[in-house]
Amino acid sequence: MNDATAWWILAGLLVAVELGTGSFYLLMLALGAAAGALGAHGGLSPSTQIVLAALTGAVTTFGWYRYRRQSGAATPDVEGNRDVNLDVGETVQVQGWGPQGQTKVMYRGTQWDAHYQGQGVPQPGPHRIAALRGNTLELTRSN
User: Fold this and answer.
1) Which of 121, 132, 133 is nearest to 141 (CA)?
2) 50: how many CB neighbours lie within 10 A of its CB?
3) Distance (Å, rounded) from C-alpha 143 to C-alpha 141?
4) Which Pfam families does the record associate with it (predicted)?
5) Is residue 66 located within the same domain as residue 83?
6) Co-location of 17 and 40 in the same domain
7) Of 20, 88, 116, 137, which sits 20 to 30 A from 1 (CA to CA)?
8) Domain hosting residue 82, numbered range
9) pLDDT per residue over 50-99, tens digit each?
10) What are residue 45's phi and psi, to 5 degrees?
């Protein structure tokens, strides 16, 4: 097997893994492997092929990272997303609040730590679950 074939096989494996995981960064590394393959076709030495592949992979990966940061592609808020967490939007009854806006509530048959997320001084009564952060419920006043 010549060097170019090995590089193309590596590029294909990276694309296959990317298709399985959904990590676009693996495509950038596959571009680096493709650059190594093109270097092999061009008759470059193996060490130069490796440097070419590494530089291409690093530059494209960094470029993709910068593009995502500048385009505002942020991680979605899964803690407060009802499509991900069915507890969001449910109502709990609060008996009283602590001085730091924290309390304990009964929900789904067990006691939960809860934190007030709304404006002003929290009052006892029904509250809506706005998010679930770890094992703490983030509550807002229910209207």
Assistant:
1) 121
2) 16
3) 6
4) NfeD (PF01957)
5) no
6) yes
7) 20
8) 78-141
9) 999 999 999 999 999 998 888 876 666 778 888 888 889 999 999 999 98
10) -70, 155
